[in-house]
Amino acid sequence: MRSHQDKPQMSIKSILAYSFQSFYLAGSFLLLFIFLPTFYNISLGFALSTIGLVILLSRFFDVFSDIFIGYITEKRLINGRSKKNQILLGFFIFIFSLIGLYIVQSTNIYLFIFYYNLALISYSIAIIPYDSIVIDQKKISKKRFQLATVKEIFTIAGVLAALAIPTIISKYLSLDLLNPEVIKISGYIMIFLAIIGTLIFYFFYEESINFKSQSISFAQIISFLKSNKKISDFALITFFNLLANNFTANLFIIFVSNYLGLKDYAGYLLILYFTITLISTPLWYFFGKTFSNMYLLQLGTIITIFGFFFVAFTSADNWELYILVIFITGVGIGVDLIIPQIELADILDNNKDNRLSQIFTSFFSIIRKAAIGIAAGIALTGYGYLENVGFSLILEIPNIMIFYFMMPMSIKIIVLILVMRYRSKFHVSIRG
Q1: From CA 257, how far away is CA 260, in angstroms rounded?
Q2: Considering the entire predicted model, what is its pTM?
Q3: Exposed, middle or buried: residue 35 (CB in 10 Å: 0-12, 13-18, 19+)?
Q4: pLDDT score of 17
Q5: Beta bridge partners of 210
Q6: Do residues 66 and 366 lie in contact, with contact meaning Cβ atoms separated by under 8 Å?
Q7: Are 298 and 412 in contact (CB under 8 A)?
Q8: 89, 152, 214, 220: which one has the fewest Cβ atoms less than 10 Å from its Cβ?
Q9: What is the pLDDT of residues 332-390, one digit of tens each?
Q10: Contact 208/6 with Cβ under 8 angstroms?
């Protein structure tokens, strides 16, 4: 069994050093998932349907690589090795992949596939042990919630920085937001921040738990998944929630630029959206002291659905209504940043076998990546294909509305039903 020695509390220095990694990771991945597909389509001439297909297939490959990486990570911990060194290795390989995607900017599809998949694999190498650190704060619920909240505040701050940098550069150089030069300069800045963040983490983060594990077989993992209904139900919620969120993320710039006619303001609207999300995070943290994780997720989902409802009435003629959508959905999505990892950690706390944090961090990483890949594949490939063939519904609903509004809202309703069912089986409204 894994034995662990808990320090009374993780120090403020360690919390900040740990969380700062999320600053550059969030910024880099915002560019990777929101800017990159549109940039390679508009500026480098890649077909949107091709980009969507590459992302979809790469994500499915990434799912299998995560299983292997999770297994190897657990084996390393069995031998008493530090998580920190693996995290460091993954982060620096990830930085190299960013150089290829944002600095090289090759129009060769095979180089794009190589750098994109390298980014996914290296991210997994780092993020599986990195995210498990929150889970490892065993039986210190307040400290765990504090760590997760600070981490997500840094995450949103990194997102805002990643949005502000290209927006300011494009304004200063009088170029479009997705101009290759704007993306290249933004890439240099984010890579510099990534190096600084990685060094801060390595030298100032102190591992709070020392592990010594026994091996756990793949058969044991499968058996645990089959027997633990709570894990499987929560995995289903996580998958559909991420699926809905990433539909809108992949098509945000296209929706704002092409449908609302606000090409020059896309960066500012993204900044506004994530600013609202950042502001709402302390609010969810405050409520998290009283109410259960899934009660808050249910509330956040209802708020998000309510916000999505107004998207149906937006157009280039009344784009102002979209500001209201941003405010409402920004608040609702804020809960998605904190609750899932806290709930997973709480689930694992209640199990007798405490060897599973690495395995299930890997498992939920697979869930996340599958959802992101499927969302990108369906949204980008589907929308790109329908636009190319000139397809439109009988009701003349714009194709962008199908993928940006109708599908994610429908999926969010499914999430709400699943959360309500989950709460009725496993949860009460008030935190115990």
Answers
A1: 6
A2: 0.73
A3: buried
A4: 84
A5: 5
A6: yes
A7: no
A8: 214
A9: 988 887 777 778 777 776 665 555 555 666 677 778 778 877 887 788 777 777 766 55
A10: yes
**What Rg, from alpha-carbon coordinates, does the chain have?**
21
Q: Please count the other Cβ atoms lying within 10 Å of the Cβ belonging to residue 33.
A: 16
Beta carbons within 8 Å of 40's beta carbon, 6+ residues apart = 46, 51, 112
Q: Which residues are within 8 A (CB) of 267 and not within 5 positions of it... i.e. 6 or more apart?
A: 163, 164, 166, 167, 170, 177
Q: How far apart are CA 230 and CA 240, in angstroms?
A: 16
CB burial readout 308-319, b (16+ within 10 A) else e: beebeebeeeeb
Residues 242 and 368: beta-carbon distance below 8 Å: yes
Domains of the chain by range and CATH? Answer: 10-209+223-426 (1.20.1250.20)
The one-letter code for the residue type at 55 is I
How many whole angstroms separate alpha carbon 254 and alpha carbon 159? 19
Tell me the C-alpha distance between 277 and 332, whole Å.
Answer: 8
The token pair at 206 is: 């102190």
* Token representation of residue 19: 């969380």
Whole-angstrom Cα distance, residue 235 to residue 363? 9
Cα–Cα distance between 304 and 324 in angstroms, integer? 12
* Amino acid making up residue 292: S
